[in-house]
Specification:
One of its GO terms (molecular function) is oxidoreductase activity, acting on the CH-OH group of donors, NAD or NADP as acceptor. The chain is an alpha/beta fold and 276 residues long. It contains ten helices and ten strands.
């Protein structure tokens, strides 16, 4: 039973990662993202996920510095963007992200997308950063099994995390199976499909059954599939509401009902077409 916002998963290198965190994609740099980060930390969140592409690392860093918890209680993730990939380029991008965030180290650094011809050199840079202690864990985002197979062919470390689009319309069974077999923790971005399923009869009926919101039903479904999940919001009340998912559990039949909504529908790009 996952019963607390402080619950963690142990990654394949022994590092503990919170199961629940705040995503900040499209949160505006400055007061908006800073206040969202502070609100989340005040509500008990300890994981914050950003990326250089989001253009809000500076505001995230301000939220971290002005929150009422110490840095070592937090788990901070950022990602290297497509035009920053390559060995030397990634090392430079990491330093820029670290300076914007105002931290001496990162808890997790991810390759944002599997850019063909570059992601293996990018991974070598991440391995260097990991070995030198600048990052507690390294991983990837949006990697399909064939990308992971190619990466693992001559890598020194297995990615600790694969962050992918995951929601009831895109359940990623093949990727989940590969990552489970290789002890790569799955993490969900856009877990609520940007609200597109909130009025689906299967979701609304479960919301009524459990006396929860549609968002809470979907986020609980994420957690029971052993995903780390990082719902995005900049509204204090919604941030608190999203985290109110630890006092109930979906039964197997209801998990199956949500699983059955899968249509392999993406709202983001197909990783095989990104960067072409």
């Amino acid at each position: 039973m996952i019963n607390s916002i402080s619950d963690t998963v142990v990654l394949n290198n022994g590092v503990e990662m919170p199961r629940f965190g705040l995503g900040v994609y499209k949160a505006e740099d400055g007061n908006e993202v800073t206040n969202a980060v502070r609100s989340a930390i005040h509500a008990g969140y300890r994981s914050i996920d950003t990326a250089s592409f989001y253009k809000n690392e500076k505001g995230v860093g301000e939220g971290i510095r002005t929150a009422d918890v110490s840095r070592d209680e937090l788990f901070i993730t950022t990602k290297v963007w497509n035009d920053e990939q390559g060995y030397d380029e990634t090392l430079k991008a990491f330093q820029q992200s670290r300076e914007k965030l105002g931290v001496s180290y990162l808890d997790l650094y991810l390759i944002h997308w599997p850019i063909r011809g570059k992601f293996k050199d990018t991974w070598r840079a991440l391995e260097k950063l990991y070995k030198e202690g600048y990052v507690r864990a390294i991983g990837v985002s949006n990697f399909k099994p064939h990308h992971l197979h190619e990466l693992l062919a001559d890598s020194e470390f297995v990615p600790a995390v694969n962050q992918v689009e995951f929601h009831p319309r895109l359940t990623q069974e093949d990727t989940r199976a590969f990552c489970y077999d290789h002890r790569i923790q799955m993490e969900a971005w856009s877990p609520m499909m940007r609200g597109r399923l909130f009025d689906h009869p299967a979701i609304t009926s479960l919301a009524e059954k459990y006396q929860k919101t549609p968002a809470q039903i979907i986020l609980r479904w994420d957690l029971q599939h052993d995903f780390v999940t990082i719902p995005k919001s900049v509204h204090e009340e919604r941030i608190r509401q999203n985290a109110n998912v630890f006092d109930f559990e979906l039964d197997k039949g209801d998990m199956d009902r949500i699983d059955a909504l899968n249509t392999n529908e993406r709202i983001g790009p197909d990783p095989d077409k990104m960067g072409q």
